């Protein structure tokens, strides 16, 4: 009897260790499931300028090889004098992105690559990357992305805000009137050598908003 009790006591640490390993494995699986779900990116801008309303609460869209922050309904119609703007808006695609292992995994546990749909019909994916020369955030095929900064991408632990290379340096630059292109301030200097001083710039945060789950989608408990 005493031997049995001692054996049970000796086994407790192993049992606890196994239980903890299983729990950690479940958490990891849940984390990976969340990272592989498509999500839009919602924009938050607290810049004191009145221009913040152009993007705050809006969304990231893809257009002409670049990412843009907008509060404009892509289906809205514009007066004839803004025909060129209408043509640009007609080609926008709402980002639906998720994390994806980049070939060779150059960043280890620091993060992954990031991909997004670029069309719904037919469904197509592109890599999201930061142009190493201009610091614009762009999308393209692997051949387009590979010479540039492709990651690591991940999220903040609580609010799930998007991060790149371990921090948040997302910035928008007004490239057309009321149209803001997404940049990443790699040098953390306000894009001093990348954007002319008279061009409006604002810092933003990007929060992942998972797409609504549909009937039949897999449910993974965390």
From TrEMBL:
PANTHER family registered for this protein in UniProt: RICIN B LECTIN DOMAIN-CONTAINING PROTEIN
Biased composition (Polar residues): 39-49
Organism annotation: Coleophoma cylindrospora
Alphabetical UniProt keywords: Signal
Annotated region described as Disordered, given as residue ranges: 26-49
Name of this chain's protein: Uncharacterized protein
Lineage, opening ranks: Eukaryota, Fungi, Dikarya, Ascomycota, Pezizomycotina
Superkingdom of the organism of origin: Eukaryota
Signal peptide location: 1-21
């Amino acid at each position: 009897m005493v031997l049995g009790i001692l054996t049970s006591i000796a086994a407790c640490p192993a049992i606890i260790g196994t239980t903890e390993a299983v729990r950690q494995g479940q958490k990891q699986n849940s984390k990976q499931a969340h990272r592989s779900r498509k999500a839009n990116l919602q924009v938050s801008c607290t810049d004191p300028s009145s221009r913040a309303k152009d993007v705050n609460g809006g969304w990231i869209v893809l257009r002409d090889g670049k990412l843009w922050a907008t509060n404009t309904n892509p289906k809205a119609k514009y007066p004839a004098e803004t025909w060129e703007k209408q043509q640009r808006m007609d080609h926008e695609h709402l980002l639906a992105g998720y994390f994806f292992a980049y070939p060779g995994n150059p960043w280890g546990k620091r993060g992954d690559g990031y991909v997004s749909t670029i069309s719904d019909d037919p469904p197509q994916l592109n890599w999201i990357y930061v142009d190493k020369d201009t610091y614009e955030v762009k999308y393209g095929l692997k051949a387009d992305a590979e010479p540039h900064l492709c990651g690591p991408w991940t999220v903040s632990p609580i609010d799930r805000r998007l991060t790149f290379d371990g921090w948040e340096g997302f910035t928008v630059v007004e490239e057309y009137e009321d149209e803001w292109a997404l940049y990443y301030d790699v040098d953390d200097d306000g894009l001093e050598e990348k954007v002319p001083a008279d061009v409006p710039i604002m810092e933003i945060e990007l929060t992942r908003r998972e797409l609504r789950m549909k009937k039949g989608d897999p449910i993974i408990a965390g």
